[in-house]
Design brief:
The structure holds two protein chains of two kinds.
Chain A lengths: L3 E3 L2 H4 L8 E4 L9 H10 L4 E4 L10 H6 L3 E6 L8 H8 L4 E4 L2 H13 L4 E3 L13 E4 L2 E6 L4 E12 L4 E2 L8 H7 E12 L18 E4 L1
Parallel strand pairs in A: 1-12, 2-3, 2-9, 3-4, 4-5, 9-11, 11-12
Antiparallel strand pairs in A: 6-8, 7-8, 9-10
Chain B lengths: L4 H10 L6 E4 L18 E4 L3 E7 L17 E9 L2 H9 L5 E4 L3 E3 L4 E2 L15 H7 L2 E5 L11 E2 L14 E3 L4 E5 L2 E5 L6 H7 L4 E2 L2
The chains are: A alpha/beta, B alpha/beta.
Pfam families (chain B): CoA_trans (PF01144)
Protein name (chain B): 3-oxoacid CoA-transferase subunit B
Keywords (chain B): Transferase
Chain lengths: 219, 210
């Protein structure tokens, strides 16, 4: 269904349910949908599985969601950072589950979800702890590991501009996981710097076509 | 006498072919960029979605939407391109990167790499793109000191730390020598401040003569 332009972040995240798997865009703070994550904190959904490259910075955004006990499990590639003290404490005290995923597998598993791929074989991680218990196969003389898609109930991402049909453009390295997460969730919510009229964006410059977008809010 | 980090970085840079597409891992390998002049034709890839990355951004050039894999503000050079994370990792995993330079806790004589996790019980593990780079780049260079603070060699017969990739490392640049990991064995070259005999005594890995 066509994208709906929302007046507030609260309206945009209203449909996130308890127990949902939420894909959260961003690499560090670049492309992090801070306004949507803050709105989700207010909205109150809990028992969430959060899929994101990192596991929160400082005390705001994703870190605040973790600190308030709303997150049951984190699926990410790089939780440990200089300012990831909230996650570090929860992890060390066993209050949050971690599925550590090589960053390329994180991206590709979401790409697979968005493209209807049932699973795929990759050499990444073969012979390491992160492939333990996974099915393997020799392909062209190399060990490959079977990896399954990561689907989101919801994606929360940030983009630069959207038109009223939900077509998105991004800015520089803030693009990162936004486009692939938009494809991998049943319900994609986007915060943008500006919503423009249909016909304003050059169709050649659109990175995420509106078919992947459900809610847009300008923050 | 041994090489400084900067001198190791210069050695690595000197061995990167003209025009290569290169990913520099976070930490020490980032300093290799300081030794790659524009005439090198090298194009730097950063896994958060940029090719032809420029030097660190300062002052008014700082843009929160333009960072490197270490989340430091950087710049774009003419001829840059942006892409999303799935494309960025497809570049690595599809074998399109010519060289990656990574740090390491340990490298084995057969090219196994350990650089993502100490395995300590209270350590918060983080892998990022290390496994994708180690597995996908055409050449994998490691840059590290040869000996740990306690004197234990980091070039070892078998890694004791958790592995990042198996048989993936081609060359190891250290403060006292550079090591080529070949099908026939390990070749040490460009020794600094250590004799071949001393080096052989301090390592448990047999060395072939260059």
């Amino acid at each position: 269904m066509s994208a709906r332009i929302c007046g507030t972040a609260a309206e945009a995240v209203a449909e996130v349910a308890d127990g949902a798997t939420v894909l959260v865009g961003g690499f560090g703070m670049a492309g992090m949908p801070v306004g949507l994550v803050d709105a989700l904190l207010e909205q109150g959904a809990s028992e969430l599985t959060v899929v994101s490259n990192n596991a929160g910075n400082g005390d705001t955004g994703l870190a605040a969601l973790l600190a308030r006990g709303r997150v049951r499990k984190v699926v990410c590639s790089f939780p440990r950072q200089s300012d990831s003290w909230v996650f570090d404490d929860l992890y060390r005290s066993g209050r949050v589950e971690l599925e550590l995923v090589p960053q390329g597998n994180l991206a590709e598993r979401m790409r697979a979800a968005g493209a209807g791929i049932g699973a795929f074989f990759t050499p990444t991680g073969a012979g390491t702890q992160l492939a333990e218990g996974k099915e393997t196969r020799e392909i062209d003389g190399r060990t490959h590991v079977l990896e399954h898609p990561i689907r989101g109930d919801v994606a929360l991402i940030a983009a630069h501009r959207a038109d009223r049909k939900g077509n998105l453009t991004y800015r520089k390295t803030a693009r990162n996981f936004g486009p692939v997460m938009a494809t991998a969730a049943r319900h994609t919510v986007v915060q943008v710097g500006q919503v423009v009229e249909v016909g304003t964006l050059d169709p050649e410059s659109v990175v995420t076509p509106g078919i992947y977008v459900d809610r847009v809010v300008s923050l | 006498m041994s090489l400084s980090r900067d001198q190791i970085a210069a050695r690595v840079a000197n061995d990167i072919p003209h025009g290569a597409y290169v990913n520099l891992g976070i930490g020490q390998p980032t300093s290799v960029a300081d030794h790659l002049p524009p005439a090198s034709g090298v194009v730097l890839h950063t896994e958060n979605g940029l090719l032809n990355m420029g030097p660190a951004a300062r002052g008014e050039d700082i843009d929160e939407d333009l960072i490197n894999a270490g989340k430091q503000p950087v710049t774009e050079l003419p001829g840059s391109s942006y892409f999303d994370s799935a494309d960025s990792f497809a570049m690595m995993r599809g074998g399109h990167l010519d060289v990656c330079v990574l740090g390491a806790f340990q490298v084995s004589a057969e090219g196994d790499l350990a650089n993502w996790h100490t395995g300590a019980p209270d350590a918060v593990p983080a892998v990022g793109g290390a496994m994708d780079l180690a597995t996908g780049a055409r050449s994998v260079f490691v840059m590290m000191t040869l000996f740990a603070r306690d004197g234990a060699p980091k070039l070892v017969p078998r890694c004791t730390y958790p592995l990042t990739g198996i048989g993936c490392v081609d060359r190891v640049y250290t403060d006292v020598a550079t090591f080529e990991l070949t099908a026939d064995g390990v070749v040490a070259r460009d020794l600094v401040g250590i004799t071949p005999t001393e080096l052989a005594q301090r390592l448990e890995v047999p060395l072939l003569t260059a």
